[in-house]
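Cross-check.
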Amino acid sequence: MGTGNGTGKIVVFACHWCAYSAADLAGIRRLDCPENVRIVRVMCSGMVHPKLVMETFALGADGVLVMGCRLGECHYKDGNIRADARRMVIHDMMDAMGLEPERFRMVWCASSEAETFVQACRDMADTVEALAMRR
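Predicted model, tokenized:
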């Protein structure tokens, strides 16, 4: 498995309440997140529309993560459930664009789960690196 440090651009849409807080905690704990990860704070994962994900790919992202509160624990009641329901639409759109479905993931974590946040970023970085090597 690769190092996940620098191959391909990865954009993380992180909900303000949980995933972004987990990223902040990861920084405080000095956990090593891949250098090619860029975090975009959104108020809720439910705000990340499939069109936004596709635009992110069109602008050069090699991988996209949508990270939010654990299912059933959304600060906006059902935002993450709405986000999760969009997963298949996003995969269908990616297929139409000729993108591998592995380039997109949704991950749920609590604000205290810095390790979960970092591991999800590392896993995506490794996936993007492996996909680049297959080409």
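The mean pLDDT is 94. The CA atoms of residues 5 and 35 lie 5 Å apart. Passed to J.P. for a second look.
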